[in-house]
Amino acid sequence: MSDTYENERTFEPLPPAHGRGFATSWWGLAWLKALEDTALDGRQLKQGRRLAREGAVGAVTVRPGRITAVVRDRDGSHHRGDVLLQELDEDDWDRFLTMAAERAGHIAALLDREMPPHLVEDATSAGVELLPVIGDLEPRCTCEAWDHCPHTAALCYQVARLLDQDPFVLLLMRGRAERPLLDALQERSAAPVADEPAIPQGIPAEEAFAARDIVPPLPALPQLSPEPGEPPHLDTETAPEPGVDPAALEFLAADAAARAHRMLAEALAPGHELHPCEAELTEDQDTVRLAAACHETRISARLAAASGRRPADLAAAVRAWQLGGAASLQALEEEWTPDAEVLARAVAGLDRAWPEGERPALRPTGGNRWTVTGRAAQLRLGHDGRWWPYRKERGRWTPAGPADRDPAAALETMLAEEGAGG
Q1: I need a surface site. Which of 13, 99, 238, 263 has the fewest CB within 10 A?
Q2: Tens-digit pLDDT string for the chain (422 aa)
Q3: What is the dihedral of CA 397, 399, 403, 405, to 10 degrees?
Q4: Rounded distance, CA 422 to CA 418, Å?
């Protein structure tokens, strides 16, 4: 809490800071760095840090050019400590406001009572130093020390905690209270300028990239939950709108949660950047994918109608999807003509796999399809160069197993299973 007057703010004493640092925000940490860079005696800083940590700093008053507090020493005595900070002059403030008004990102942040860290770099480029540099912090204390004493050091450490709460405290120390500053910025940004283009929305890429070394580190990644979240239950007393199927919506929500959980798990896995992203599915492929995950007959029927397939056709498509995803579905439904060289290599591989005269006879039954003569078995070549085994069941060619780069291996496995089943 603080009491605010025209150009002065007084903050109530802060509690002891046991077990924590004095600052966590970028501004608080930057203030501490400036303090520690400008102080000559590290021992005085250490003693001041201990006093501040113990809660020995009283109410802190901040006004242009000065911060003040009474600090209780470890022997019970009290000392008034002041730290003077050079105020910015009118030319400095004019340059600062001009710089901020020229950048839409700064305007939006400041008007929302936020101070982006890269404001420091942009202000410095405009010739305005917001953070103190060597010689800027001038300590004065009733203990009559000539440099920073434990009392003024404790005051500065406490100010770092105040900057965590409100970085506008720094601008007040530099000479401008928050409300007059924001009013001046709003007035300047709203004023029309002849022959000057409108301020673009957003932050220029060059500006964002330049801030890469001064922004705080990203927080640690959250722990991934073991299972995806439960979808909402839509079975309520209120009847749904016409055409809305609550069960179908629940199914889609559960599917979306499961996919999001899987994608997040992959993104958090070590080396995920080395794996290519999945190709985007077509609407038809996604319909089959959904059908493969669906165990509700009524929803499956809707998916079949949406895909333009009869239930038996959808069942074959689902079987293909379960064996190999989009590539397997493509082998089921697409007929194409491979290069002659590809076919020649396949025939040579088949010849090597069986003793002379024992290789199953194959006859072409489509551009990329070869059927075993006298057997209900077939091979199909996919666009990815893999061979898919098919078996004829109830007059329909059905995917019989996973693909293999070697056509002989795919065919031999299928024939062996067929023989064992017979």
Answers
A1: 238
A2: 444 456 889 999 988 887 666 788 888 888 888 888 776 677 888 899 899 988 999 999 999 999 999 999 988 899 999 999 989 999 998 988 888 887 767 777 777 777 777 788 888 888 888 888 777 888 999 998 878 899 999 999 999 999 888 888 989 999 988 888 888 888 877 655 445 555 556 777 777 776 666 666 777 777 888 888 777 777 666 777 887 888 888 888 888 888 888 888 888 877 766 666 667 888 899 889 898 888 888 888 888 888 888 888 888 999 999 999 999 999 999 999 998 888 888 888 888 888 877 888 889 888 899 999 888 899 999 988 899 999 998 888 999 989 999 988 888 888 777 655 54
A3: 0
A4: 6
Please name the helix (run of DSSP H) or strand (run of DSSP E) that holds residue 137, with its range, or none: strand 137-141
Helices and strands (H, E) in the chain, number of each type: 15, 11
Q: What is the DSSP string of 71-126?
A: EE-TTS-EEEEEEEEPPP-HHHHHHHHHHHHT-HHHHHHHHTT---THHHHHHHHT
Sheet holding 387-393, edge to edge: 362-366, 369-372, 377-381, 387-393, 396-399
| Alpha carbons 99 and 383: distance in angstroms, whole number | 58
* Closest residue by Cα to residue 123 from 159, 92, 85, 160: 92
Would you state the structure tokens that stand for residue 233, as one six-digit string?
Answer: 């239950």
Q: What kind and span of H or E run contains 66? A: strand 66-72
